[in-house]
UniProtKB/TrEMBL annotation:
The keyword Nuclease applies. This is 3'-5' exonuclease. Pfam families: DNA_pol_B_exo2. Transmembrane segments: none annotated. It comes from Flavobacterium hibernum. Residues 62-224 form the Predicted 3'-5' exonuclease PolB-like domain. InterPro entries: 3'-5'_exonuclease_PolB-like (IPR019288), RNaseH-like_sf (IPR012337), RNaseH_sf (IPR036397). CDD domains: DNA_polB_like1_exo (cd05782). Keywords: Exonuclease, Hydrolase, Nuclease.
Amino acid sequence: MIEKINLNNILFLDIETVPEEENFNSLDAEMQSLWDHKTQYQRKDDFTPEEFYDRAGIWAEFGKIVCISVGYFTIKGDIRNFRVTSFFGDEKKILRDFNNLINNHFNQPQHLLCGHNAKEFDIPFMARRMIINQIAIPDKLNLFGKKPWEVAHLDTLELWKFGDYKHFTSLKLLTKILGIPSPKGDIDGSQVGHVFYVEKDIDRIVTYCEKDTIAVAQVFLRLRREDLLIDDEIIHV
């Protein structure tokens, strides 16, 4: 069925997140206690709450978004382009700019959002951070009261599962086995917090995020048995 979807109607996306504060000691006492309780199962006796804090970026309650990258196809006749852009800087501005894009250009019934593990991570994370930042959730992200077939989300991880719900495949592994150029540059997700807080190199994070967004689109093309994007078709805006 995915072969029947008009590529022009899909917004591909990826987000990068970091701990909300640079280090555990920057949290107030109550948040430190809540972090301790929240991560008790994951840490067990192997790490103290402070030692585990570098992973806070995976929880919307303790992390924040530093970049959202999006990409979309523009296909006219036999000319195909994939336009990529990113929102970064202050989290509230990132979320507002992303909202404006959704509400102004991808708000129709035929429009879909697509990411890798986006249903489990990116989309819930964005929605929760919007609530925390007192920003209205756009209809495309808001699942309340919707039936499963009304949810306008595609997920390349879910498509690859083929109903095998216990199965997880990373985007890096999926691109490798499908013969797609590796999306990863010189960092991985576990290093984003260090690059953000210590190196203060947001451009490096944006490049990393955009490569993932392009990789998701490439996986989707491969699942449809279509030609992969070449560099000349990718436009950074």
